[in-house]
Amino acid sequence: MDRIGVVDTMFARVDMGSIAENRLAGMEGFGERFKAVRRTVPGIRDLAVACRQLIERENCEVVLACGMPGGDDLDRIRAHEASQGIMMAQVLAGKHVLEAFVHAQEEPDPVKFTELCRQRVGAHAVNAYWLLYAPEELRKRAGQGVRQGGPDAGPLPG
Amino acid sequence: MDRIGVVDTMFARVDMGSIAENRLAGMEGFGERFKAVRRTVPGIRDLAVACRQLIERENCEVVLACGMPGGDDLDRIRAHEASQGIMMAQVLAGKHVLEAFVHAQEEPDPVKFTELCRQRVGAHAVNAYWLLYAPEELRKRAGQGVRQGGPDAGPLPG
Amino acid sequence: MDRIGVVDTMFARVDMGSIAENRLAGMEGFGERFKAVRRTVPGIRDLAVACRQLIERENCEVVLACGMPGGDDLDRIRAHEASQGIMMAQVLAGKHVLEAFVHAQEEPDPVKFTELCRQRVGAHAVNAYWLLYAPEELRKRAGQGVRQGGPDAGPLPG
Amino acid sequence: MDRIGVVDTMFARVDMGSIAENRLAGMEGFGERFKAVRRTVPGIRDLAVACRQLIERENCEVVLACGMPGGDDLDRIRAHEASQGIMMAQVLAGKHVLEAFVHAQEEPDPVKFTELCRQRVGAHAVNAYWLLYAPEELRKRAGQGVRQGGPDAGPLPG
Amino acid sequence: MDRIGVVDTMFARVDMGSIAENRLAGMEGFGERFKAVRRTVPGIRDLAVACRQLIERENCEVVLACGMPGGDDLDRIRAHEASQGIMMAQVLAGKHVLEAFVHAQEEPDPVKFTELCRQRVGAHAVNAYWLLYAPEELRKRAGQGVRQGGPDAGPLPG
Questions:
Q1: pLDDT tens for residues B46-59?
Q2: Tell me: the pLDDT tens digits for D119-158?
Q3: Would you identify the family this protein belongs to, as annotated (chains A, B, C, D, E) (predicted)?
Q4: Can you give the pLDDT at residue E157?
């Protein structure tokens, strides 16, 4: 059975990993063709190693890395370092890690923020599935201005 | 037959990958000496791994990575991370990946923006072809102030 | 016996490594199931290599990297470089390095600052233990807004 | 015969690669002990892979990477990414790549700018030669405030 | 005999490498247990490869990388790239490279600046020795607020 990795953090204020797991559980082939492997780490800068371990030790074909960077100056640098680490991990492994980050400053209202997390993480769970089983779904949306966690921007006229 | 990789994103608002494919399809030797291998990924930070896979799994000799970074602060950092990933992928593989990015802030008018995409991606498709089959075309333009997606700056007097 | 690495610096103004060692010494299985291996380096940019050596030469399963970046502009860049090095070291090794940094600007009062160090380093020592022996403790705190060195932010409503 | 690599770009507005080649051609041993291997790539972010290829496929002992970064905000980030790529390429290969970049903002007058290119690229060509054949020339200038493309700053009193 | 590497630059305005060599020459075991291996490169961004070569070709156990970054905007970016390269070199090699940089903006008076170089480089030479032969000297200064090139900050109360 194929494996899709899901990592999230204790730092986040929404259980992003469970959103991802639930979304994957509703997809065709779940439990038969593929399953989800879940891990939780302390913070976003611990995600990269967890991704590498999920790929190499747990044989995951693709991984979702969920995080919620804080909003102050130090947090922004930490988010950049976390993203660079995730980039390094996936380039070295040659397998996709989809980074599903929701930044504290994106939405001040907590209820809307939680909804944003749900939409973005859910959409990236679909992307992970497509990368693995339905690349033609990605292909037919090329240049369509698709967004995760908000309305699509759509294609430009021209 | 040689292979030239083309990757683009769902996030972009112009089908940049098809521009590249069409341009390559009009070049000498297409379908005989070389063909294009196309992939679409969710966003720009997924390009690096796709490039690595196109080089290693699909044996592409050179890859075009097309993307359209958004215009806000987070987007700029994401574009930088995407570019660093593409750099890492190509340096590790030792094969060229031409980054054909058009930034949202480069042109406000949507029709002109689309035309800019067409010109830049098309010019980089030519560059990919030259890197592979006609390095002397690059050589004779050394220091000529060549631009992709706008008028050439030309050589300086002196 | 398993090994947990602890590295700190001469530059820091609090003996952060001893805080980590003391915390680890109070945990179940200390001296039987696992022990701590301690090193001190000059400054934060020397931590990455020390982490790599602790993992590869000393067989540490997980490492705590403790540091206290200064507050001026050059210090901030140095902290970023130190963190990038630690990221590179852990991604290449595929083992977790928990970065326990306390920045000079986080708290002006020296007594409160020292207490902040104690709390953060102590909490990361617990995290290191959990990563190794109790991943379910991390899992059940997923998305709970856990902080190291201050009150938890808690989960968002929604 | 040893090989010294020279790469430049179509983007630059001065034929920097030819400056380097001409300077090398005037040095002792040219054509007997060593020769130059020239390549041109589209832009500065294509230099890193070309350097790696010159080192690994063409057996160059040292490489000169010539480029002329533009002056706007995106150009500055691209220059930084290009330099990081060149750094990665040379560190991974363990061979020197001398980066001879002249930034658009360094000199507004086109004739003086071209002269600046000539001086800097020429001086780096000498440096490449010294790294390979005359390390004692570098050694005796240690701490002498040597500059490429302008008057030397000289040593400080003290 | 063990080897300690010393690299500096022609760009610097103080012969930093000789300061390091002289300091090492006064330490116990010099010429018997260990010796210094010296190199000079053009500028700070050439240090990383020289460090790698000193470690791999010259078998140095630890290296001192001395540099004097200039003070303008481009210089600051170059210093950051140089430091990232040194970080990459040491993490990949798994051996310590102590970066002894003195930035132009740290001290305007040339005589005091030269003295600052002397103190900082000398202190890092001692650190290199300690890393190799006396880790207990580093250990007993953990968290003591030790500085190189100025008065120690000392430990915080608490």
A1: 999 999 999 999 99
A2: 999 999 999 999 999 999 999 999 999 999 889 999 998 7
A3: Belongs to the DMRL synthase family.
A4: 85
Strand-strand pairing, C97-101 and D2-9? unpaired
pLDDT digits (tens, 9 = 90+) for C60-78: 999 999 999 998 999 999 9
Nearest CA in chain E to C83: E87
Contacts of B145 in chain D (CB under 8 A): 10-13
**Residue ranges in chain B assigned as alpha helix (H):** 16-25, 47-56, 73-93, 110-133, 135-139
Contact flag C139-A38 (C-beta cutoff 8 Å): yes
> Of A17, A81, A89, which has the smallest distance from its Cβ to C142's Cβ?
A17
Contacts of A among chains (3+ CB pairs under 8 A): B, C
Closest by CA to D98, choosing from D42, D23, D154, D152, is D23
CA A93, CA B92: separation in Å to the nearest integer?
12
| Mean pLDDT across chain D | 97
Q: Exposed (0-12), middle (13-18) or buried (19+): which is C115, by Cβ within 10 Å?
A: middle
> Rounded to whole angstroms, how far apart are CA atoms E84 and B81?
15
Which of C88, C138, C145 minimises the CB distance to A40? Answer: C138
For chain C, percent of residues with pLDDT exceeding 90 = 96
* Residue B117 pLDDT: 97
Q: What is the pLDDT of residue B157?
A: 85
D11·B124 Cβ contact <8 A: no
The answer to whether the beta carbons of residues C38 and C73 sit under 8 Å apart is: no
Closest E-chain CA to C53: E94
Is the CA virtual torsion D149, D154, D156, E4 positive or negative? positive
Find chain E residues with C-beta within 8 A of C88's C-beta: 87-88, 91
- Judged by CB atoms closer than 8 Å, whether chains meet at D42 and B157 is answered as no
What is this structure's pTM?
Answer: 0.97
Write the DSSP symbol of residue D26. T
Q: Name the residue facing A91 among B14, B52, B78 (closest C-beta).
A: B52
Residues of A in contact with C99 (CB under 8 A): 45
pLDDT value at residue C157: 85
Taken in order of first residue, the domains within chain D and their CATH numbers are: 2-140 (3.40.50.960)
| Burial label, B11 (beta-carbon count in 10 A; 0-12, 13-18, 19+) | buried
Q: Which residues pair with B64 in a beta bridge?
A: B6, B98
The model's pLDDT over C94-122, given as tens digits with 9 standing for 90+, comes to: 999 999 999 999 999 999 999 999 999 99
Is residue C139 pLDDT above 90, yes or no? yes
Residue burial C17-52, b: 16+ Cβ < 10 Å; e: rest: bbbbbebbeebeebeeebbbbbbbbbbbbbbbbbbb
Q: Which of B8, B81, B113 sits opposite A143 (nearest CB)?
A: B8
Q: Do chains D and B touch (3 or more CB pairs under 8 A)?
A: yes
**CA-based nearest distance A41→chain C, Å:** 6
Helix H, strand E, coil C: the string for A14-48 is CCHHHHHHHHHHCCCCECCCEEEEEEEECCHHHHH
pLDDT, tens digit, 9 for 90 and up, residues E55-96:
999 999 999 999 999 989 999 999 999 999 999 999 999 999
Distance from CA of C10 to the nearest CA of E (A): 4
Residues of A with CB under 8 A from a CB of B: 76, 80, 83-84, 87-88, 90-92, 94-99, 103, 106, 124, 127, 131, 135, 138-139, 141-148, 153-158
In what order do the strands lie in the sheet containing B97-101? B34-41, B2-9, B62-67, B97-101
Give me the mean pLDDT over the A48-59 stretch: 98
Which residues in chain D show pLDDT less than 70? none
The residue in chain C having the minimum alpha-carbon distance to the alpha carbon of residue E138 is C40
Helix or strand or coil: residue B35?
strand
